[in-house]
Design brief:
The complex is a heterodimer. Chain A is mostly helical. Chain A contains 13 helices and no strands. Chain A has helices at 2-34, 52-59, 61-94, 99-111, 114-124, 131-138, 153-178, 182-190, 195-206, 208-223, 227-232, 247-256, 261-286. Chain A is globular. By secondary structure, chain B is mostly helical. Chain B has two domains: 24-70, no CATH class; 75-294, MetI-like (MetI-like fold), CATH 1.10.3720.10. Chain B has helices at residues 10-14, 25-52, 72-80, 83-114, 120-129, 135-149, 155-163, 170-181, 185-193, 198-209, 211-227, 230-235, 244-249, 251-255, 259-294. Classes of the chains: A mainly alpha, B mainly alpha. At the A-B interface, α1, α3, α4, α5 and α7 of A face α2, α4, α5, α6 and α11 of B.
């Protein structure tokens, strides 16, 4: 019986296993190998250089900038979308009528093609013709340069990402909230706890799994930020003075602009290690068991 | 989780039914904040639609509403650009990948949930671990491989090159395994005793029972491949193979910044997605809830 099961199982798994091997695992090892070569796709010679690509990384100013920007996106974007998502979810939980409609409307940006959203964003935040500046002038606030300003471009880009991810966060939190038994709140009320005590002592601790999931998946996606950044400034990728460049965009430029596949592979390996380390760290230290 | 909470006392629950919540100040405040949030969230969509209806003359006019709305931008996008071709390409790529993901991911999920065989946990962990590999790391070897095989110039090869990374997904395997685990074994065993083939049991008994999961997976896969950007941007060499996101992104270079056309093209790219979302809203949200909760 078990032998029969084993045979059937591996027959079913054969094609998918070949797929995951060829399209996911082999390329991963291939990238590791490429990172040890001076591998320019346009040249005939692809000499082995050992760790030279990695040493080059430490001296690379542009890589440093891309890394700092990526970190900045993550520490701005992840907390912002979690906080906003939680606030909206709590408010949606308070209301009865129109709840489904509101939830759907907040979710709409998440399904919108990023490229289209990025075009609209450029227009909204255009220094000369954008409605955002029109609104600021109406409020008697000095119009801003937004995407054209080295100091504001990153925040404007992060705002686009948060706008797109917010609906997803809200749905996650609504699911987390609906799993908290109502009786806990009733008991807290009997014990004389007020609304804010109930939030800090019941809601937030019991949302811990949702928050951990959001932080981990959010961080992974922010560390790979690419499409929004490229499309907000297609002719000058990476924004004014490289102020919006990310690691993923830098990889793209090195690999497909300059065809330095070896050096680009070394950067992807570093990115992989960073993602792995941060994810394991977050899973280890954010997960809490709460006893109420 | 252990709970040392005092149980609600009998008089609180057994008495009169809880009074129905009426409109009170916190609720009104919630409606107010939520409405402001909705206006901010939807403003980009409204701006896009309204701008796409403006003629070239009033494009840079800061007024919100077009004075003489025109469909001219849409006519130009549909007749003077390759928009229809890009749309068809995206439909093909997203359609094929959705079909293969549904078939293979449910087969793998079913096998991992319902069979007992050596190497099962290892295979599951290996497939799941691919979720941690950043796409950036994979695209370089993919590109080298595709270039070596010279796939990007001709018709079946170019489309295959665009869609092969998405033919199966680890996320889908995870989702389907979760669902198949809830199926009772007795049902499958009964079919086995009746002499049904193993594939028949999977295809005719198990699969129809997880239809809601298939629906969520289908929508997520379709949207993901419809909006895919990094790999198509890298691998597509000829304009006629561009997918909708790549085509729209490269609009700028070829036509100068023609905002009216861009907004019309963006609207045309967004509207079908929003319609699909409106129809399948429930499945999409259930899919997130299930992966989020069990992740």
């Amino acid at each position: 019986m078990r032998r029969h099961q084993t045979r059937t199982a591996y027959t079913f798994l054969l094609i998918p296993l070949v797929f995951f091997l060829i399209v996911r695992f082999l390329p991963t090892f291939s990238a590791l190998r490429l990172s040890l070569f001076d591998w320019n796709i346009l040249k005939d010679q692809q000499p082995f250089v050992g760790t030279e690509n990695y040493q080059r990384l430490f001296a690379d100013e542009k890589f440093g900038q891309a890394l700092r920007n990526t970190a900045l996106y993550t520490v701005i974007g992840v907390p912002a979308q979690i906080a906003l998502g939680l606030i909206v979810a709590l408010m949606l939980n308070k209301i009865r009528a129109l709840r489904g409609l509101f939830r759907a409307l907040y979710f709409a940006p998440y399904v919108t093609p990023i490229v289209a959203a990025a075009w609209v964003w450029q227009w909204l935040f255009s220094p000369q013709f954008g409605p955002v500046n029109t609104f600021l002038i109406w409020l008697h606030i000095t119009p801003q340069n937004f995407l054209n300003s080295p100091s504001q471009a990153l925040a404007t880009t992060a705002a686009l990402v948060v706008w797109q991810n917010l609906g997803f966060q809200i749905v996650l939190f609504l699911a987390g909230l609906s799993a908290i038994p109502r009786s806990y709140y009733e008991a807290a009320e009997i014990d004389g706890a007020n609304g804010s005590q109930a939030f800090w002592k019941i809601t937030l601790p019991l949302l811990n799994p949702t928050i951990v999931f959001s932080v981990v998946t959010g961080t992974i996606s922010y560390l790979q930020l690419f499409t929004q950044v490229v499309n907000l400034n297609f002719t000058d990728q990476g924004g004014p003075l490289g102020s919006t460049t990310t690691v993923a965009l830098y990889i793209y430029q090195i690999a497909f602009g300059r065809y330095q596949m070896g050096y680009a592979s070394a950067i992807t390996v570093v990115l992989f290690v960073i993602i792995l380390a941060i994810t394991l760290f977050q899973l280890r230290f954010l997960t809490r068991r709460y006893d109420i | 989780m252990t709970t040392t909470l005092p149980q609600p006392q009998a008089r609180e629950t057994a008495g009169d039914p809880r009074p129905r919540r009426r409109l009170n100040t916190p609720m009104l405040l919630a409606y107010l904040v939520l409405t402001v949030g909705i206006v901010v969230t939807l403003f980009p969509f409204m701006w896009m639609l309204l701008t796409s209806l403006k003629s070239f003359q009033e494009l840079f006019n800061l007024a919100f509403l077009p004075t003489a709305p025109t469909l001219d931008n849409y006519r130009q996008v549909l007749t003077e650009t390759k928009f229809v071709q890009w749309f068809a390409n995206s439909l093909l790529v997203a359609g094929v990948t959705t079909a293969t993901v549904l078939f293979f991911d449910s087969m793998v999920g079913y096998t991992l949930a319902k069979f007992d065989f050596p190497g099962k946990n290892l295979i599951f962990i290996l497939i799941l671990s691919t979720l941690m590999i950043p796409t950036e790391m994979l695209v370089i070897p993919w590109f080298v491989g595709v270039s070596d095989l010279q796939l990007t110039r001709s018709v079946p090869g170019a489309y295959f090159a665009i869609m092969f990374p998405g033919l199966m997904s680890a996320f889908g395997v995870f989702l389907m395994r979760q669902f198949f685990e809830t199926l009772p074994d007795d049902l499958l065993e009964a079919a086995r005793i009746d002499g049904m083939s193993e594939f028949g049991i999977f295809w005719r008994i198990a699969l129809p029972l997880v239809r809601p999961a298939l629906a969520s997976l289908a929508i997520f896969t379709f949207l993901g491949n419809w909006n895919a950007f990094l790999w198509p941007l890298i691998v597509i060499q000829k304009p006629e193979f561009r997918t909708l996101p790549v085509g729209t992104a490269l609009f700028n270079g070829e036509a100068g910044t023609q905002w009216g056309l861009i907004m019309a093209a963006s609207s045309l790219a967004v509207i079908p997605v929003l319609i699909v979302f409106a129809i399948f809203q429930k499945q999409i949200i259930e899919g997130i809830v299930l992966t989020g909760m069990k992740g």
